[in-house]
Structures are given as C-alpha cells and as structure tokens.
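A further point concerns the way the authors explain their paired sequence and structure data. The central task, working out the structure tokens from the amino acid sequence alone, is never made concrete. I therefore recommend that a typical entry be quoted early in the introduction. An entry of this sort, consisting of the sequence and the corresponding backbone structure tokens, reads as follows:
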Amino acid sequence: MNFSHSDKTAGRIVDTLNSSILCLNKDWTISYVNFAAEELFSRSATSLYGKNINQLFSQVELNTITDKLDAFGGDSFAVTEHDAKITLVNGTTFSADYSIYPIESTDNTEQILIEIKQLDWQSKITREEFTNLKKQASLQFAQGMAHEIKNPLGGIRGAAQLLERELNEPKLRQYTEVIINEVDRLTALINNMLGPNTEIVKKSINILEVLEHIRRLMMAAESSRIHIKIDYDPSIPELMGDKRQLIQALLNIVQNAAQSIDHQGVIIFKTRIGRRFTVGQITHPLVVQVDISDNGNGIAEEIKDTIFLPMVTNKAEGSGLGLPIAQEIVSRHGGIILFETSPQGTTFSAILPLSLGTNAP
C-alpha cells in the first residue's frame, strides 16, 4: 500500500482508523499522517509533512519509539511494543501499543510506517461508561427516595401555612416561617438530586456561543479571582443540542473548576474536532471535544472513581450534584465527560457528537 501524500484512496481508508498512522522517509521525515495522528500531535497534516519524527517527541523524557527506530535500521521485520510510555514535545504523556513496519512505495523507495494506538483514552472511556452505569443505578435509587420524601414535605409545608394563618402573635409566626423556608430548601435540594426533569429540545447551536455565555457569567462573578483563557477552533460546525441544558452542564464543570482554585487561578476553554469517536456501542464520525482545564488542586484520590455519582464531594460548600448533572445532560446528548487530574490541576473533556453515529464493530 502506498502511503504517499498523492495516494488519496489509501488516505481515505486509513483516515477511518482510530490508530495514528505515520509514514516516514529513510531520513525519518514525515511523508503521510492520518486524521488520528493529526489529533494525537495537535498539528495539521500540512504542518507535519517534511518534519523529522524527533521533533514530535520530548527530548527530555525517554521515548521508546525513537529508540526502536534507531535499532530498526533496514530490518525487514516489524517491531512491536505494548503499553509503552510516550511523551510528546508539549509534555503530554500517554500509554500506547505501537508497531514499526518497513514498506516499499510504488516508486521503489523504502519507507517506514508507524502505527500508534493510545491505551489511556480508551480505558478512560470504558471506566467512565462503567461509572455512568453506576450513576444511573444510583440516580434511580435517589429518584425513588426523593419522591417518597417530597410527599411528606408537601404535607409539612401545607400544615405550617395553615398554622401560620391561625397564629395571631408575630413572634410565633417566625417559627412557621422557619419551617416553610426549610421545607422549600429541602425540596430544592431534592429537585437538584433528580437532575434536569425537562425533555431535551435539540436545535442547531454554536458551542462557542455556549462557552462565551458561560465565560461572561464567570467574569461577572469571579473576575477578580479567576482568569479565563480561550483556545477555540473557529471551524467547528454547529451541533444539534439543547442550548439551555448544555449551558447548565458546562457551567457546572466551570464552577467546579473555580471551586478547586484556592485563591487566584486560570481556567482554559479549549475546543477541538474529533473523528470516529466511540461512546458505548455507537461510533460517531465527528465529535466536538470541549476541554475545561484549571490549575487548581486536582481531584482527591479517594473520590476519583466516584466523582460522577450524586452527593460525592470533598468540598465543604459543595453539594456533590454539579458533575453528576453535567454528565447526565451530556449523556442525554449521546456524549460523555472524561477527566484527567493531578495536583497541578484538572481537565474535564466533554465529548458531544456532531452527527449521527453508527454501531461500533
């Protein structure tokens, strides 16, 4: 198979793969990359062509790919490594299986093909899908309990209102006001536990308008403490979604990010296009990935696996409902929320389909 830039047919086939494919000349300069490789290195194909493969990887951290290329030489046998740690020039580190193959192009020149299959991202998707199943079970239990609690709360509130009408002393009415206010507070808390109770009404929306609306809200509330940076891809097409509910979902994530920052800090909004992204059993040809990154304290180790379950929080002022509601809304849009965290900060990635998916093989 010819992986030269002119081979459009082969290019279209290889662009459908989830693995990152790179083709190198004998001097290790890049002659071809597929869509997955563009996403992996956050660079366009035209900006990668002609560059030496070493320019893509960190020169500080060890990378077994360049080590294997050194040893590969003109060997006619493929080289494969499993669960290798790879660090890119931008500092991103991930685990991957990769293979290096010798190939011969149609003009009889020797070339090298590298296939890289990331492991971390797929394992995150699998883990979050499992967590989402646990969340659904937890949410169903919470909904049942909430309905059981709301009924007597309504009775208590009604009785307090009747009692208030019969009381002539203002001092005694203060007590009924306390009862009514506390019942209303508990009712609001239960409604939040149930999450969005309205149907999703999908219309064509611009995700950048959603993020800009959230940015304005946060600047009005936190301008002295939080600085928001943006890294938008302006070419992202409109998606079908419920604008109001997506604002709520992403605002919950941003507020969670702000709460993780003790004093002053930075939150970054980033958008990118993803291709052939699988959520559950559905493979979506195109998705939009919204990254919300902060330089806060990170997520505590003891709640990492349960962060999307209701009432899970380690914040004194937190309800533990913001992230579960966000995940529920994104899930109802056919997407998923993933995250990466460290003591230096956290990135939540909301993945939203841009088109109808197909059943994954």
The chain has three domains: 8-118, 123-194, 203-359. Residues 120-166 form the longest helix (47 residues). Residues 85 and 209 are 37 Å apart (CA to CA). The longest strand covers residues 265-279.
